[in-house]
Task: structure prediction
Amino acid sequence: MESSRLEAFSDGVMAIIITITVLGVRVPEEPTLAALLGVAPVLAIYAWSFQTVGTYWNNHHHLLRRAKHVSPAIMWANLHLLFWLSLIPFATEWLGRHIAAPWPTAAYAALLFFAAVAYNILQQAIIAAEGEDSDIARDIGRDWKDKISLALYACAVGAAFVLPWVSYALAVLVQAIWFLPDPRVRPRAA
Result:
């Protein structure tokens, strides 16, 4: 299988995830600014979730473009990533309804942690298929971004029970690290 087919499937799933996530945002009952401000936390969590899926979509695109072929291990690793991302609508709605509550905050941070683990597994599956001496294996190299991201997400899970806002800050910091596509996996110029 070519990577373009897997990428198209993943694009569709991520588009559906974003669509389902926005459906969890409820319109205020009253036509007032106060009512709109009442749903501001939900809108903020939605924007964060949208950015999260968008960041994965962008980096996923560049990562798959580097794969010369798709092995069964890559397909399963990709599904593993999509599974965790598919839980974003649920976690977004729960957190949006209970902003700063420990358990929804921890669940959201844990979801981000497991999605990051799945992305790392996908990278490793691609490296295994391409070979340890491949360009992508050399480019990913010591993968400090991955390790820092996992550590920050793990800290965010723990911080949710003490200072939920610290948990949010740590997760947003990871988003900032990955906002631009990972330069290690951008396609090389021909």
